[in-house]
Amino acid sequence: MSAKLHEAQEHCKTAEKFLKTSLLKWKPDFDSAADEYSQAAQCFRIARDLKSSKECYLKASELYKKNRSFFHAGKAIENAIIVSKELTMPEELYSLGCESSSLYQQHGSGDSGANILDKVAKIIEENSPDLAVKLYQQAADVSSAESSQHQGSEYISKASRILVRLQRYDEAVDSLRHEIGFHQESGNINAIGRLTVAIVLVQLARGDAVAAEKAYKEWGNNCEVPEIQTLEQLLQAYDEEDRDSAKKALSSPFIRSMDVEYARLASTIPLPEGLEPVPKASVRENAAPSYVSQNAAYMEDDNAEGKSQDTSFNTSAIDNTERKHDDEDELC
Questions:
Q1: How much is the pTM?
Q2: CA nearest 45: which of 21, 80, 96, 13?
Q3: Closest residue by Cα to residue 104 from 64, 74, 143
């Protein structure tokens, strides 16, 4: 290790000599100095002095840029990212990744520019998913500019899944629409059907069943039979507010076979409220007697007296009729 450290220091001294000017040497030799710093960085890397290795790679990149060697400049920054990924904060890695990608694109290597963005996104995804989403989206845009729609769809798919995991559903919908656009341009119709299911699930997670139905109407013609059956059962359950049917649709084998983020999302989607039956009235034991108004009692007494008067009137009338008949019999 000490030998490699000594070798690295010698390369650094040589690089500094190439940068010096004199009466006979008016212009620094940036390219040779950059090569020396790159070799010094490799020696420091072997000696496990990662901080010094990173510094040398960054110095080499600056010198390559001065010499307009953009590809080598981008590659030097990429090497600095790799050796320092465990030492550098995600924000700095993000900045270095964007700078390296820009240098690759200036050289005309768009694919390399998208690739370094993807690499950095993977490194920082766990600790800084927000920045990872931005890198994946930039990688997709770079690939799209290079007419690599298939590769671009893979990058934007990673961004969509992270947004779903972060429960940033509005942004996830936009990302999924972007992803569908990539597949439409590349003619990959089969992938659109599966993404239609994904976007319906995200819309339901947002609590917008109407938007979910609109998404199905917009892209449902790209779906295959299993996808159509799943979506129609699911949307009908939400339309009819059928909790059991919605739960059954969300746990279907087709949805469980989707990417992990969407399968987990299906288990957290709020079910429709459902139509609850009206509860039956129940009799409470030892309940107090119902309240009865005094006026109601008086009215009952009056009705009773009226009925007794009617009864006495009817009785006297019957007696008079019977007497009349008896008198008629005696006269006969």
A1: 0.78
A2: 80
A3: 74
